[in-house]
Specification:
This protein is an all-alpha fold. The protein folds into 2 domains: 58 residues, Orthogonal Bundle (434 Repressor (Amino-terminal Domain)), CATH 1.10.260; 36 residues. It is 60% helix and 0% strand. The longest helix has 20 residues. 21% of the residues are buried.
């Protein structure tokens, strides 16, 4: 599993001498968002997926959550706060995904 800190290092390595603005434009996100993620902060779901695609890594490799078909991982919505541990976020994500599966099966 890739941690947020190692994700930041992967971003820095991938962009090399390319500036933040140029790399962010290539990814399709703001340079401020790229900077925050490079410094260990968790982006919103859409930006998280864009960054993972740009890096060529599976979202589930970073988050540790199971991948369900083409659905995005739910627990990335939880911002990095001390009150919400990664384990708690993952447990909540699994609960949310289970609820989504149950709701989808009723349609």
């Amino acid at each position: 599993m890739i941690t947020l800190e190692s994700l930041g290092r992967m971003i820095a390595k991938r962009r090399g001498s390319q500036g933040l603005r140029a790399a962010a434009a290539e990814i399709g996100i703001s340079s401020a968002t790229l900077s925050r993620v490079e410094n260990g902060h968790l982006p919103d779901l859409e930006n998280f997926k864009k960054i993972c695609d740009w890096l060529g890594v599976d979202v589930s490799a970073v988050s540790g959550a199971p991948r369900i078909g083409q659905q995005a991982v739910a627990h990335v919505h939880f911002k990095r706060k001390k009150e919400v541990s990664q384990e708690t976020a993952l447990a909540l994500a699994e609960m949310i995904l289970a609820a989504q599966r149950a709701a989808s099966s009723r349609r």
